[in-house]
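Methods — Computational structure assignment.
A single polypeptide chain was analysed. Its primary sequence is given first, followed by the predicted tertiary structure written as structure tokens.
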Amino acid sequence: MHLLFSFLIISFIFSLKKRFDLNYSQSPILVISLIITVLYFNALYTSLNIGYFIVHLLGICSIFDNIYLINKNKLKLFQNEEKILISFLIFCFLISIASLFVKFGIWDEFTHWAPQTKYLYLKNSLRDEFTEFGVKSYPVGSALFYYPFLRYSTFNEGVIYFGHSFLLLLPLACFIDQKEISWQKTIFKVFILIIFLIVFGVRLGPIGSIYMDQVVAIFFGSILVYYINSKKTFKEIILISFLLISFLQLKDSLLAFSFLIIGFITIDQGTLFYQRKNNITLKQFFVLISTLSIFSILSLKSWEFHLESINIQRTWNINQNLFDIITITLFPSEEYNRVILNNFINKLFELYIIPNQVSENLLKYFPPV
């Protein structure tokens, strides 16, 4: 089932690219975000089974749509742009295949991330107040993304890592140079990028980990790069709403980072207006910023309301004043804050020897970020 669903994702990426006239670096992260968004709101308000049906229906429709586009000569698989996208997707698929043999081996995988995924797999619904595992208030965005890979098959740790590799790798398409003319150079650059990420502690493929810290960081950077490399049209920016909804469901207390993205877009658009280089009207600008803010708050508050409905309180909450967060980080007034900042800086620049998930000894000496 995981191979079938990965094929549907790839088909959906091509269809979305052509129908929304996107560049090849934008559609992969959009497809991931749409899958998480559809499954999340259906699990919350209707049924996860309905969300699963919608996602697969969209995927199947995309197959027929791509066949239609090929017949009409509107989708040319052997043009340079399509070659670059195909080569990137094949590269991601091969790395994901290599993760099928990985087993859980880190503490939080056993105590939270894996049980959360298995509960969704067994119950086809979000957790209730009587279920005890991990951090109760954590969102389930990653587990929702793994869910279609696992459905109608036995629960398999390798399949979770397979889905996680897709979740981790596909957003990296945003970093592909739009002016690149060679698919070989694209693959080489993506390979170098992945090596760089591994050195800084990101674990994927045969050395994978389903910790979400790396995914959150990559998603955050990819959303910014998505906007920077876009033509900054109304359509492209409004689609960031789906990216922010799914981003906020990856881990707890990410609203401040969501508003950092919105703030960056606001400043950039203000500069473009001042330079008279803007591609949107002032009215569209206010609609965009309002929409992005509303959907971010909606994503967060909908999860908080769900937690309240099952009598679970937030474990951590840093969604406070953004200026206070920046001030505390840059100018720590307490020894505790200084320790946190110093540990973060030291960990950020710590060189990793590539760990092996299978080896418990290496896990002991090279703990995850």
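Note: The chain is about 65% helix and 0% strand.
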